[in-house]
Amino acid sequence: MHPGLSHRASCEKTLHNGVPASTPDGAFLGYLGSCIDITHRHEAEEKLRRIPRLLINAQEAERNRIGQELHDDLGQRVVALSIGISHLAQQMDGNDKLAADCANLQQQASAVITDIARLSRQLRPVTLQRLGLPAALQSLCAKSANPDGVVVTFSQYGELKRVVPWIVSIALYRVAQEALRNALAHSGTDRINIDLHIDRTGLAVMITDRGCGFAVEHTTTTGLGLSGMAERMENIGGILKIDSSPGAGVTVTASVSIPEWEPSWT
Ligand SMILES: Nc1ncnc2c1ncn2[C@@H]1O[C@H](COP(=O)(O)OP(=O)(O)OP(=O)(O)O)[C@@H](O)[C@H]1O
Ligand SMILES: [Mg+2]
Fold first, then answer.
1. How many CB atoms lie within 10 A of CB 169?
2. Handedness of CA 263, 264, 265, 266 (dihedral sign)
3. How far apart are the first and last CA of the chain?
4. Structure confidence at residue 207 (pLDDT)
5. What span, in angstroms and rounded, lies between the C-alpha atoms of 28 and 14?
6. In degrees to the nearest 10, what's the CA dihedral of 243, 189, 139, 238?
7. Which DSSP string do the residues of 89-138 spell out, in sequence order?
8. Residue 250: other Cβ atoms inside 10 A
9. Domains (ranges, CATH) in the chain?
10. What is the DSSP letter of 74?
11. Which of 4, 38, 132, 253 has its CA 20 to 30 A from that of 17?
């Protein structure tokens, strides 16, 4: 054996290449060719295929950690600060100017507490982990009620009869989160719908607004939202479709089929 070649007791994957050989008078002699052990290449390709999934899991684990840290540490410290200010305010009898300053500081502290709670829920979607995708999407809509009076509604079509794989539910949830954020930030609409469609082959989430729309093919923004949504869906073998044109609102559809559902769907 050539010293540069490694020896394996058995080849799990091989690549064959051959041509028939015959004598000058046409009698078949056999095949001439090569047989290459491609087990290592196959294993490397498998590992590469798993990388996006590992990256998503690592990213979600890190978001969970930061969300929990925000809630347990920073959030509690600002609560303590707010209590301290309120104690201070009680000692300001007779000093209206300082009492007003304290009230103002306490209002700011309360706003920071609300923001931290919202951010930590966004980073760590506890409802998704505990109650699943339909409940999490419903809760996302309910919590998006905002002072501008935009109505965000959730509708579900079809019933979930099997557990949604975590990698699928987190991808669909993150897409809905970003599409909703975009609709609230850019569309100028007063109504946004999030629809969850369930059938025997898989799931689709549609986020629709009736706002200003945009020219999908010509976006030159440096934003990370649209590319992030597309990447997430690609990584789970799903499809992201964005239908829009200026003046016509936006519909974002994220769909994925779950092959293991079909055999036992009753
Ligand atoms: N629902 C929508 N209505 C109108 N325009 C939209 C909508 N969604 C996206 N766009 C347009 O597409 C652009 C790109 O969106 P994208 O989410 O990638 O970036 P962004 O929201 O600007 O920034 P980021 O998501 O990184 O905070 C937006 O800047 C906006 O012009
Ligand atoms: Mg965005």
1. 21
2. positive
3. 58
4. 98
5. 25
6. 10
7. HHT-TT-HHHHHHHHHHHHHHHHHHHHHHHHHHHHS-HHHHHH-HHHHHH
8. 24
9. 11-124 (no CATH), 132-266 (3.30.565.10)
10. I
11. 4
Q: How far is the CA of 221 from the centre of ligand 2 (A)?
A: 10
Ligand nearest to the CA of 226: 1
Burial 212-242, CB ≥16 within 10 A → b, else e = ebbeeeeeeeeeebbeebbebbeebebebeb
Of 210, 221, 222, 251, which is best to mutate to test ligand 1, by the most ligand atoms within 8 angstroms of its C-beta? Answer: 221
Tokens of 195: 């629809």
The token pair at 200 is 């025997």
In a 3-state reduction of DSSP, which class is residue 155?
A: strand
**Per-residue pLDDT tens digits of the chain, which is 266 residues long:** 444 444 555 667 888 888 988 888 888 888 888 888 888 888 888 888 777 778 878 888 899 889 888 888 888 999 999 988 888 888 878 888 888 899 899 999 999 999 998 888 888 888 898 999 999 999 999 988 776 789 999 999 999 988 899 889 999 999 999 999 999 999 999 999 999 999 999 999 999 999 999 999 887 777 789 988 998 999 889 999 999 989 999 999 999 999 888 776 55
* Ligand 1 mean position, distance from CA 183 (Å): 8
221 lines ligand 1 (CB under 6 A): yes
Spell out where 144-222 has E strands: 151-157, 191-199, 202-209
**Cα distance between residue 109 and residue 79, in whole Å:** 8
| Burial profile 100-111: b = 16 or more Cβ within 10 angstroms, e = fewer | eebeebbeebee
Q: Whose CA is nearest to atom 19 of ligand 1?
A: 223
